[in-house]
Amino acid sequence: LLLGLLAGPAAASAAADADRLRTRALAATCAQCHGTDGHAVPGQAMVKLAGLPEQYILEQLIAFRIGQRPATIMHQITRGYSQEQLETLAKYFAAQK
After folding, report:
1. How large is the angle between the packed helices 54-65 and 83-95, nearest 10 degrees?
2. What pTM did the predictor assign?
3. Whole-angstrom Cα distance, residue 71 to residue 46?
4. Most CB within 10 Å of its CB: which of 73, 75, 90, 94?
5. Taking Cα atoms as reference points, which of 43, 45, 39, 47 lies closest to residue 92?
6. Number of Cα atoms under 13 Å in the Cβ half of residue 88
């Protein structure tokens, strides 16, 4: 019983760590254009994603995916992600300051 109680928090912590790692890996795919953690280089053409409202980011990602917002490459990139992944990215970048 004691081992089960001790393993519970450790397992939960390991799962949370794995989720954070998956999210950071997913966000890293955006770094080439939008900068590390969404912090684009000031003065460059790319949009800074860090700190934008989550709903706004998600709406833009979906607009790219369905062809509602014109793009050179984002329409192709967003089609490679699931809805859940797009939501994860929007939440992650919104939380960056």
Report:
1. 140
2. 0.83
3. 12
4. 90
5. 39
6. 18
The Cα–Cα gap between 54 and 90 comes to 5
2 residue type, one letter: L
**Neighbouring residues of 63: CB distance < 8 A, sequence distance ≥ 6:** 69
Distance CA 73, CA 78 (A): 9
| Residue 39 phi, psi (nearest 5) | -95, 85
Render pLDDT for 20-76 as a digit per residue (tens, 0 to 9): 999 999 999 999 999 999 999 888 878 899 999 999 999 999 999 999 999 999 999
Using H for helix, E for strand and C for coil, what is the string for 33-79?
HHCHHHCCCCCCCCCCCCCCCHHHHHHHHHHHHCCCCCCCCHHHHHH
